[in-house]
Amino acid sequence: MDNFQIETAQNINIHQNVAHITTRIGSFLIDLLIIISYYILLIFIMSWLNLNFGIQQWAISLILSLPTLFYTLIFETLWNGQTPGKRINKTRVVKLDGSKPTLGNYLLRWMMRIIDIQMATGSVAVLTILLNGKGQRLGDLAAGTTIISEKKRVTLQEVFLADAAEDYSPTFPQVTLLSDADAQTIKKLYHTALQKRKHAIIIKLHERIIEITGIKTELKPIDFLKVVLTDYDYYTQQ
Fold first, then answer.
1. How confident is the model at residue 164 (pLDDT cuts 50, 70, 90)?
2. Do 111 and 202 lie in a common domain?
3. Where are the alpha helices (DSSP H) in the chain?
4. Which residues contact 231 (CB under 8 A, 6 or more apart)?
5. Are residues 42 and 112 in the same domain?
6. Out of 12, 19, 171, 237, which could bridge 147 as a Cys pair, Cβ 3.0 to 4.6 Å?
7. Picking from 57-61, 102-106, 128-132, 189-193, which range would have the lowest pLDDT averaged per residue?
8. 116 near 128, Cβ under 8 Å?
9. In this structure, are 198 and 220 located in the same domain?
Protein backbone atom coordinates (compact mmCIF):
# COMPACT_ATOMS: atom_id res chain seq x y z
CA MET A 1 0.00 0.00 0.00
CA ASP A 2 1.36 3.44 -0.94
CA ASN A 3 2.15 6.02 1.70
CA PHE A 4 1.66 9.67 0.95
CA GLN A 5 2.55 13.05 2.36
CA ILE A 6 0.31 16.05 2.92
CA GLU A 7 1.13 19.58 4.03
CA THR A 8 -1.08 21.30 6.58
CA ALA A 9 -2.03 24.96 6.64
CA GLN A 10 0.78 25.45 9.18
CA ASN A 11 3.36 24.17 6.63
CA ILE A 12 3.83 20.91 8.53
CA ASN A 13 4.50 17.84 6.44
CA ILE A 14 2.59 14.79 7.65
CA HIS A 15 3.58 11.34 6.38
CA GLN A 16 0.48 9.17 6.30
CA ASN A 17 1.31 5.52 6.89
CA VAL A 18 -1.65 3.99 5.04
CA ALA A 19 -3.03 0.78 6.55
CA HIS A 20 -2.41 -2.27 4.36
CA ILE A 21 -5.44 -3.88 2.73
CA THR A 22 -4.86 -7.15 4.63
CA THR A 23 -4.78 -5.25 7.93
CA ARG A 24 -8.07 -3.58 7.07
CA ILE A 25 -9.66 -6.91 6.17
CA GLY A 26 -8.36 -8.34 9.46
CA SER A 27 -9.94 -5.45 11.39
CA PHE A 28 -13.21 -5.99 9.53
CA LEU A 29 -13.22 -9.70 10.41
CA ILE A 30 -12.57 -8.96 14.08
CA ASP A 31 -15.48 -6.52 14.14
CA LEU A 32 -17.65 -9.04 12.28
CA LEU A 33 -16.80 -11.69 14.88
CA ILE A 34 -17.84 -9.30 17.66
CA ILE A 35 -21.16 -8.61 15.91
CA ILE A 36 -21.82 -12.34 15.39
CA SER A 37 -21.00 -12.99 19.05
CA TYR A 38 -23.49 -10.31 20.03
CA TYR A 39 -26.22 -11.97 17.95
CA ILE A 40 -25.43 -15.38 19.45
CA LEU A 41 -25.68 -13.91 22.95
CA LEU A 42 -28.94 -12.21 22.00
CA ILE A 43 -30.45 -15.46 20.70
CA PHE A 44 -29.27 -17.33 23.80
CA ILE A 45 -30.87 -14.78 26.16
CA MET A 46 -34.17 -14.72 24.30
CA SER A 47 -34.24 -18.53 24.21
CA TRP A 48 -33.49 -18.66 27.94
CA LEU A 49 -36.38 -16.29 28.59
CA ASN A 50 -38.55 -18.70 26.57
CA LEU A 51 -40.19 -15.92 24.59
CA ASN A 52 -42.76 -16.74 21.96
CA PHE A 53 -41.84 -14.91 18.81
CA GLY A 54 -44.89 -12.77 18.24
CA ILE A 55 -45.00 -9.20 17.02
CA GLN A 56 -43.76 -7.82 20.34
CA GLN A 57 -40.82 -10.17 20.46
CA TRP A 58 -39.82 -9.36 16.88
CA ALA A 59 -40.00 -5.66 17.76
CA ILE A 60 -37.74 -6.24 20.77
CA SER A 61 -35.31 -8.23 18.60
CA LEU A 62 -35.22 -5.44 16.03
CA ILE A 63 -34.49 -2.81 18.68
CA LEU A 64 -31.75 -4.93 20.25
CA SER A 65 -30.21 -5.41 16.81
CA LEU A 66 -29.81 -1.67 16.21
CA PRO A 67 -26.35 -1.45 17.87
CA THR A 68 -24.97 -3.80 15.20
CA LEU A 69 -26.41 -1.62 12.44
CA PHE A 70 -24.67 1.49 13.80
CA TYR A 71 -21.63 -0.44 15.10
CA THR A 72 -18.90 1.29 13.06
CA LEU A 73 -20.50 4.74 13.30
CA ILE A 74 -20.82 4.55 17.09
CA PHE A 75 -17.32 3.23 17.75
CA GLU A 76 -15.50 5.45 15.24
CA THR A 77 -17.24 8.53 16.63
CA LEU A 78 -16.66 7.72 20.30
CA TRP A 79 -13.23 6.06 19.94
CA ASN A 80 -11.54 8.70 17.79
CA GLY A 81 -11.73 6.83 14.48
CA GLN A 82 -11.38 3.30 15.81
CA THR A 83 -13.57 0.24 16.15
CA PRO A 84 -12.44 -2.68 18.35
CA GLY A 85 -10.95 -4.33 15.27
CA LYS A 86 -9.08 -1.17 14.28
CA ARG A 87 -7.83 -0.66 17.83
CA ILE A 88 -6.44 -4.20 17.99
CA ASN A 89 -4.65 -3.70 14.66
CA LYS A 90 -3.54 -0.15 15.57
CA THR A 91 -5.33 1.57 12.68
CA ARG A 92 -7.45 4.70 12.71
CA VAL A 93 -9.72 6.77 10.46
CA VAL A 94 -8.30 10.25 9.81
CA LYS A 95 -8.95 13.05 7.33
CA LEU A 96 -6.49 13.41 4.47
CA ASP A 97 -4.93 16.45 6.15
CA GLY A 98 -4.18 14.33 9.22
CA SER A 99 -6.84 15.90 11.42
CA LYS A 100 -9.68 14.22 13.29
CA PRO A 101 -12.81 13.54 11.19
CA THR A 102 -16.09 15.20 12.10
CA LEU A 103 -19.35 13.41 12.85
CA GLY A 104 -20.37 14.23 9.27
CA ASN A 105 -17.28 12.45 7.90
CA TYR A 106 -17.97 9.35 9.99
CA LEU A 107 -21.65 9.40 8.99
CA LEU A 108 -20.82 9.64 5.29
CA ARG A 109 -18.34 6.74 5.52
CA TRP A 110 -20.95 4.66 7.34
CA MET A 111 -23.70 5.39 4.79
CA MET A 112 -21.44 4.43 1.88
CA ARG A 113 -20.81 0.99 3.42
CA ILE A 114 -24.05 -0.11 1.74
CA ILE A 115 -22.39 0.28 -1.67
CA ASP A 116 -18.77 -0.39 -0.65
CA ILE A 117 -19.21 -3.49 1.45
CA GLN A 118 -22.76 -4.81 1.84
CA MET A 119 -24.10 -4.76 -1.73
CA ALA A 120 -20.92 -6.13 -3.33
CA THR A 121 -19.66 -8.20 -0.36
CA GLY A 122 -16.65 -5.89 -0.04
CA SER A 123 -15.36 -6.26 -3.60
CA VAL A 124 -16.00 -2.61 -4.48
CA ALA A 125 -14.18 -1.46 -1.34
CA VAL A 126 -11.17 -3.71 -1.98
CA LEU A 127 -10.89 -2.68 -5.65
CA THR A 128 -11.18 1.02 -4.84
CA ILE A 129 -8.55 0.80 -2.09
CA LEU A 130 -6.09 -1.03 -4.34
CA LEU A 131 -6.52 1.44 -7.21
CA ASN A 132 -6.69 4.64 -5.18
CA GLY A 133 -3.19 4.79 -3.69
CA LYS A 134 -4.30 6.58 -0.53
CA GLY A 135 -6.11 3.70 1.13
CA GLN A 136 -9.56 5.05 0.32
CA ARG A 137 -12.73 3.12 -0.40
CA LEU A 138 -15.73 4.96 -1.88
CA GLY A 139 -16.85 6.04 1.59
CA ASP A 140 -13.43 7.55 2.24
CA LEU A 141 -13.39 9.33 -1.11
CA ALA A 142 -16.78 10.87 -0.32
CA ALA A 143 -15.80 11.82 3.23
CA GLY A 144 -12.22 12.91 2.50
CA THR A 145 -10.79 10.34 4.89
CA THR A 146 -8.47 7.36 4.89
CA ILE A 147 -7.30 4.69 7.35
CA ILE A 148 -3.75 4.89 8.62
CA SER A 149 -1.60 2.45 10.55
CA GLU A 150 -0.13 3.68 13.83
CA LYS A 151 2.45 0.89 13.95
CA LYS A 152 6.03 2.12 13.80
CA ARG A 153 7.78 1.02 10.63
CA VAL A 154 11.56 1.09 10.46
CA THR A 155 12.76 1.76 6.94
CA LEU A 156 16.14 0.87 5.41
CA GLN A 157 16.85 4.57 5.25
CA GLU A 158 16.44 4.87 9.03
CA VAL A 159 18.76 1.90 9.56
CA PHE A 160 21.43 3.45 7.36
CA LEU A 161 21.06 6.81 9.14
CA ALA A 162 21.51 5.07 12.50
CA ASP A 163 24.68 3.35 11.25
CA ALA A 164 26.02 6.66 9.98
CA ALA A 165 25.39 8.49 13.28
CA GLU A 166 29.10 8.70 14.06
CA ASP A 167 29.61 10.71 10.86
CA TYR A 168 26.73 13.06 11.65
CA SER A 169 27.44 16.76 11.23
CA PRO A 170 25.25 18.97 13.49
CA THR A 171 23.46 21.97 12.05
CA PHE A 172 22.65 24.11 15.09
CA PRO A 173 25.32 24.36 17.83
CA GLN A 174 22.91 26.67 19.68
CA VAL A 175 20.97 23.60 20.84
CA THR A 176 23.51 23.32 23.68
CA LEU A 177 21.64 26.24 25.27
CA LEU A 178 18.82 23.82 25.98
CA SER A 179 18.84 22.03 29.31
CA ASP A 180 18.32 18.28 29.63
CA ALA A 181 14.87 18.98 31.01
CA ASP A 182 14.08 21.20 28.01
CA ALA A 183 15.24 18.53 25.57
CA GLN A 184 13.25 15.76 27.26
CA THR A 185 10.10 17.89 27.32
CA ILE A 186 10.53 18.86 23.66
CA LYS A 187 11.12 15.23 22.65
CA LYS A 188 8.05 14.00 24.55
CA LEU A 189 5.77 16.70 23.16
CA TYR A 190 7.20 16.23 19.65
CA HIS A 191 6.41 12.50 19.58
CA THR A 192 2.96 13.11 21.11
CA ALA A 193 2.23 15.75 18.48
CA LEU A 194 3.26 13.39 15.66
CA GLN A 195 1.22 10.51 17.03
CA LYS A 196 -1.93 12.54 17.65
CA ARG A 197 -1.39 14.94 14.73
CA LYS A 198 -1.46 18.03 16.97
CA HIS A 199 -0.14 20.63 14.54
CA ALA A 200 -0.45 23.47 17.05
CA ILE A 201 2.02 21.76 19.42
CA ILE A 202 4.62 21.57 16.64
CA ILE A 203 4.24 25.29 15.97
CA LYS A 204 4.54 26.21 19.67
CA LEU A 205 7.63 24.03 20.15
CA HIS A 206 9.22 25.60 17.06
CA GLU A 207 8.58 29.11 18.41
CA ARG A 208 9.78 28.25 21.93
CA ILE A 209 13.08 26.73 20.75
CA ILE A 210 13.83 29.75 18.57
CA GLU A 211 13.05 32.00 21.53
CA ILE A 212 15.50 30.12 23.79
CA THR A 213 18.32 29.52 21.30
CA GLY A 214 18.02 32.43 18.90
CA ILE A 215 18.36 30.07 15.94
CA LYS A 216 17.42 31.51 12.57
CA THR A 217 16.23 28.97 10.01
CA GLU A 218 14.09 28.53 6.93
CA LEU A 219 13.27 24.92 7.81
CA LYS A 220 9.65 23.98 8.25
CA PRO A 221 8.67 23.52 11.92
CA ILE A 222 8.51 19.71 11.87
CA ASP A 223 11.85 19.41 10.04
CA PHE A 224 13.40 21.98 12.36
CA LEU A 225 12.38 20.03 15.49
CA LYS A 226 13.77 16.82 14.03
CA VAL A 227 17.17 18.46 13.37
CA VAL A 228 17.24 20.14 16.78
CA LEU A 229 16.63 16.87 18.63
CA THR A 230 19.21 15.04 16.53
CA ASP A 231 21.76 17.81 17.10
CA TYR A 232 21.11 17.79 20.84
CA ASP A 233 21.61 14.02 21.02
CA TYR A 234 24.84 14.39 19.05
CA TYR A 235 26.31 17.03 21.40
CA THR A 236 25.28 15.25 24.60
CA GLN A 237 26.86 12.01 23.44
CA GLN A 238 30.25 13.56 22.68
1. very low
2. no
3. 21-48, 55-69, 71-78, 84-88, 103-113, 123-132, 138-143, 156-163, 180-196, 199-213, 221-236
4. 170, 171, 172, 173, 175
5. yes
6. 19
7. 57-61
8. yes
9. yes
